[in-house]
């Protein structure tokens, strides 16, 4: 008897074949119909037992959440909703699940409740679908880069440099609280710490990835990054996964092309590989939207949104053009923005990004050539002396999906910028070396993987697209 998973059984046309399947009970109706799920697909297999010939004790132990091993015959289903089912000849309860205590009841649970039970939430339809899509998306990311000549580089997680210069790093130290040795002037003496210097968790692998671009030509990272920013929003995590390609001899236009092509390719990929899960998530979102007032409902279903992104060009707009659109916009004139747009140079807030993407352009937008003083130190200064070759890719419902730039490849310009921002040249000696030995135009970007998963699955809270979210005041599991 062959052991098969539920996905294989549902796909098979092997009527009357004997099979063995293991899984968890989702529901048990009429002492007869057991819906089994094993995580291989969003769909359950219906297993029909002959209750008259099944011991009373066994019947009682078939409860939601219990693990079972079933042997039986694949038959055409009489019922609606599935083509085949299993006529059970043997059932063994592998692991009981007390029906009164099991948190995941066969009913609708709130996402807040499920977050508190993150160790069990992957057993629900929504979370199993999201996590399978996340897994396939990861694979699509690697596939895209590997097929396009990029080298996967594992940049360090513990680092001495603040790649973004934003001071949002989690410290890594082996000193015990209050027992850290001090220097003569009363500061903590990190020279006596584990690494002999002050270290933190990385906020981005970019600077190290640049060393690989400037040797292997095309590199990408895909790993965890950490930000100690106290943002309690539906789009921020303290620990998230970032994808960072970096390419030598590529300017900002090439960078925009790469970002657009990359996003379209991985979406196209999962539209193929995750059909059932995306169909389920599409329905789920449509249901959820029905509870919203008409004006707040999205005009497109999830699947249509994904197809729209794949099939249409992203709109490319300079910061200055975007600034003019925003300044002349209705919400700005009617003072509806929390941060009014008056002076060129202002940083764009998420309300502005959302206006541009959701109201004005109604498609993904790439903003480029930002004012230098709102962007990081490593970005290539334009000839105007006041803007840098930066780009952000903005998505409907998400806001910033990608942040990237052409890098400052000129030694003197970079050193001047670092001086102006009080960034220690000694700390970044190796980064400056790239500009001393064979410097060249190069560019890259960072894409927040969870924001991509959010967009792909239609989940509104970023905490629901990562297995165990880390956010301010929360590091359970
Ligand atoms: O715009 P950011 O800060 O750019 C960088 O870190 C660059 N070093 C990337 C590069 O050029 N190689 O972050 C990049 C992306 C953002 O666009 C966003 O999608 C995501 O990372 N991101 C977050 N995602 C979840 N939670 C957070 N707290 C995030 N902060 C940034
Ligand atoms: Mg950014």
TrEMBL record:
Gene Ontology biological process terms, A to Z: asparaginyl-tRNA aminoacylation
SUPFAM superfamilies per the UniProt record, alphabetical: Class II aaRS and biotin synthetases, Nucleic acid-binding proteins
Localization: Cytoplasm
Catalysed transformations (reactions): tRNA(Asn) + L-asparagine + ATP = L-asparaginyl-tRNA(Asn) + AMP + diphosphate + H(+)
Keywords: Aminoacyl-tRNA synthetase, ATP-binding, Cytoplasm, Ligase, Nucleotide-binding, Protein biosynthesis
EC numbers on record: 6.1.1.22
Pfam family, one: tRNA-synt_2
Keyword ATP-binding: yes
Top-level division of the source organism's lineage: Bacteria
GO CC terms in record: cytoplasm
Primary location: cytoplasm
A molecular function GO annotation: ATP binding
Every Aminoacyl-transfer RNA synthetases class-II family profile domain range: 131-467
InterPro entries: Aa-tRNA-synt_II (IPR004364), aa-tRNA-synth_II (IPR006195), aa-tRNA-synth_II/BPL/LPL (IPR045864), Asn-tRNA-ligase (IPR004522), Asp/Asn-tRNA-synth_IIb (IPR002312), NA-bd_OB-fold (IPR012340), NA-bd_OB_tRNA (IPR004365)
Family that this chain belongs to: Belongs to the class-II aminoacyl-tRNA synthetase family.
Subunit structure: Homodimer.
Protein known as: Asparagine--tRNA ligase
Organism: Polaribacter vadi
